[in-house]
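Suppose you are handed only these lines of text.
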Amino acid sequence: MDFRFSPELESFRQEVKDFCQKELPPDWQMGDFFAEEALETENEWAFYRQFKLKLGAKGWLSIAWPKEYGGQGSRLKYVILDEEIVYHGAPGLDTGLTYAIISPTLVRYCTDEQKERHLPPMGRGETIWCEFFSEPDAGSDLARLTTRAIDKGDHFVVDGQKAWTTMGYIADWAIGLFRTDPEAPTHRGLTMFILDMNSPGIIRNPVKNLLGRTVWSETFFDGVKVPKENVIGKINNGWKITMDTLNGERSGIWWLANSRRTLDRMLGYVKERDSLAKDPIIRHKLASLAIGIETSRLFNYYVEWMREKGDNPVHESSISKEFAADLSVRVAETCLHILGPYGQLSKGSERSPLGGTISEAFFGYLPWTMAGGSPEIQKNIVATRGLGLPR
Ligand SMILES: Cc1cc2nc3c(=O)[nH]c(=O)nc-3n(C[C@H](O)[C@H](O)[C@H](O)COP(=O)(O)OP(=O)(O)OC[C@H]3O[C@@H](n4cnc5c(N)ncnc54)[C@H](O)[C@@H]3O)c2cc1C
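From them, the structure of the protein bound to flavin-adenine dinucleotide can be written out as follows.
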């Protein structure tokens, strides 16, 4: 057993680090969980798009895809890229959505025509995608979703509402799960579609998080026409595709990368202050976070190695996501305690240590523990799929 990455993968990690350091301006404003959360002005979005095009030009965005679609078939390289991009607060991976979650579904389930149309621009970094699963009354219990897609012959007509759509306010394309057969048992009457976000009848309202940053949209569908060629897989067979998609979302890598960045910042601060660096309680707190991060890191890589081999980790993915998500909040909370009351001052304040990034991390990381399934849902998966307990 060898827990180290190969020299080729280590040198790829260094290349990504160097790229981020070279391409990001010194005053780059990072998001609190993903870079995209901090973008507000047109200039910032323009920079984001340029950066993403550069990632595409390097062939990195498609790096995990099979060679026939322009990739290198390397899940591990993709994970290294994802980790470093998030660690550096760099833009371009669309909160991991387009490339970690949606593109594997397109590669696996789409027709050749669908792939030919969507993968090349996605790989070049020209398009932003989002995913429509959750609704106001269907989140953990997703199979209760009610947004209808009615078959009209050569197209479907979609009516209803989706909630919490990350990047939904700006995405060009989406995948989404809709009810196509209301008579069938809940899991069986659902179909996955590709949606053009500029279709008439799609109304998106941006939704802000605890820090006042736009993260999601609530999206209304008012008679939206979706051509039949946009069905992913078979009609009424969307549940299985959705479960695979969500499983891909349950990687702990983003939470881990954020935790690492926050701990590294805190360590830099503590090392400059002897009174803190020599305090046994503070040292133990930081050591305890480092233990969590190292454990999370190894387990995340293990899950990604399973994926690289073609396995389908289910409860393992939930373990990696839940452990890393819980840890991210603990890291931010512990660092906030160490900084004392000044740590709670906001980003703009001159007296705020580390530029207010720690309090922002705390409020930024907390909501993300719910994404891709809440902590309770991850534990339910581990209980049933991992421990064999009854449903
Ligand atoms: C940052 C973020 C990004 C997101 N991005 C997207 C996105 O891009 N697309 C999308 O479709 N959705 C997205 N979501 C929505 C997310 O998937 C849902 O919030 C999540 O699945 C929970 O659903 P809910 O909000 O309806 O809460 P509910 O399902 O109503 O849950 C409320 C509480 O009850 C608990 N609970 C529910 N059922 C059980 C159970 N069986 N056992 C134990 N406890 C239970 C939950 O753990 C939770 O604490 C995002 C959410 C967040 C926070």
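What can we learn from it? Residues 315 and 386 are 5 Å apart (CA to CA). The first strand starts at residue 129 and ends at 132.
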